Amino acid sequence: MRTTILIPGVAELARLLRLALAAMAFAGLSACSLLNSFQPMVGIEPMSPGEYIAFQRGDILTTGRLSAATEQTIRVTGLDTGACAGAMPDCLAALAEAKGVSMEQRLSAAAELWLRQALSAFKVRAGEFGERQAFKAAMEAARYAYAYLFLIPRDPVARAFEDRQTQVRDWYNTAVQLASTQLFDARSRADDSLGGNDPGVLDYGGWTMQVQMASVRSVSADNVPQELLPASSLAFHGLRSIYRRDGIGAELVAVLEDAPVAVVSDWQAGRNPDKPRSRVRRPAEWSEMPSPNLTVLFLFDGDGLKDALRTREARVVIHDPYEDSDVMLHGQRVPLAANFTAGYGLWLARSDFSRQSLRTLFGSEQGIDKPHLYMMQPFDPDRRIILMLHGLASSPEAWVNVANEILGDAELREAFQVWQVYYPTSVPVAINHAQIRQLVTQALHHFDPEGAAPASSDMVLIGHSMGGMIARLMVSSADQQLWRWVLEGRDISADRLERLHARLDPMLRFSPMPNAARAIFIAAPHRGTAVAGERLVRWISQLIRLPLRLLESFDDVVETLSGGDAGRRDEQPRRTLALPNSIDNLSADDAFVKVAADLPISPEVRYHSIIARENARGSLEDSGDGLVPYRSAHLPGAVSEKVIVSGHSVQETATAILEIRRILHEDLKERAVKKDM
């Protein structure tokens, strides 16, 4: 029997191969499907604590994406986050009608969705229409966030530990910040869309905004800011810490005009409800810091939640964070947000103090020729004054971290206000002392004519280096000691002496300032320094030029003390013979320094010393900070003496700042004990 084998052709082989592969694939898929049916539907991936916190608390502000809670709320409505981004009305309608979504979820999700739209619009805003759209979105975000925070049945205190409440608060603050700066920009441009002649009412973007100054006196209709900057947009270097307070409201900095004529608040008018707030234009002797910190709230009034979600009106309430620490909203006492560093840092960053102080020292143009008083906040009659005096070739920048740390300390901020004197450090110590004493006295008399306010008593003086010498004179008394120094070795006629007496007596005879109760002397050369006599320093001293205004005002004194003829114009070297410059006054051999060092300090004043030494090794008595020896900075009778290993600029060290804060807190405790006795 013959077997016949049929051999398929090439085409047939290809067809059979395809069928075989398909069968194998089907079998494989069936097997995979069968196996997968026994796998769990939910998998587990490890997550670190940091990742978990980021997932729970991440939101449109921190990650640029919607928060997990908002995404979950949107999914319940059957929508997705992408659809909500392009169709806000449909998304909000779906949120309102969705079952299984609470009012808290609706409001908080709507707030974040509107904020996302506002942030996107502010990035790409172009033209008036784009800016209005950005403003509208920010207002809606603020409205929904406000409703969530204050207008739902569940008390805010009951939600205090919830992440969601913190998120919504931040969304409200950011939305108010965005809308506030937009309103300011529109007003600065004199935007016609604002409408109306009442500066307290603004119509913009379909909203009517009623502006109210709750406690602010730096900003007014007569002193409109040139800029309004979010505190969160300012990053500083050179400041050790940024001090803020968590709470409700947008943290802003108003940049005012730093004009030659300082504009100073009249606190009595500002605090009396029967008198309109006013501002008094004074010569440029004292001024407020030209970049005050503000906290702004948008309040949506009405009878309840429905009114708040329908209204097109809002109150813009502006607070001074130094004056107001909280606010009553819908029966709840709520802390106000605040940034206490931003305005101060911005002022110093834009001041150009460092170059100006050198120009002043060497008599260049654009220097200063008399002391100026800067107040870190509008005068507060209930806060005691800390008066800071910088040293040679320096400025208020010397106190950058000292002042910031004091303003950042809640207890000290409540009790004190900071004043800083900026003075020409080329001028002799005796003249600077007299002018600064007069300046502070005049400022106090202007703000408190009766001298009855707490601010007019128990002042604390803090002086570094030459400023410490001046601070010591302010709490000391001089009768004839300095007069004997002036007249020693000079033969002056009775007529000239009478003229000389009228001019110099206020500088040479004085008693302790009655306003001062405590002083802190930092690296102060009370008995001078040998460094001032070194060849290089003496050469630098010859480059120092006294202000022309000062030389002209003391022309007759110079002529008398130098033995010149009346009416004759002596040259600069002859003038400096009678009027030594500041470096002359730092010499341990200077006659004035020797006399001033022995002037008695008031027994009513408690004083402290902070002294630097370059090296911890060796005898303390023989140590020094590179400029001032310990023997010169040491004062017998000090309540405390802190020696710190540092160079001469010891006031900026963390140890010195802690010591200053310790002294101030101790001062408050002592006063509290006396008050209770």
From TrEMBL:
Extent of the signal sequence: none
GO molecular function, a single term: hydrolase activity, acting on ester bonds
InterPro entries membership: AB_hydrolase_fold, PGAP1-ab_dom-like
Gene3D superfamilies, sorted: alpha/beta hydrolase
Pfam families associated with the record: PGAP1
GPI inositol-deacylase PGAP1-like alpha/beta domain ranges (all copies): 447-479
Protein name: GPI inositol-deacylase PGAP1-like alpha/beta domain-containing protein
The species this protein was found in: Paracandidimonas soli
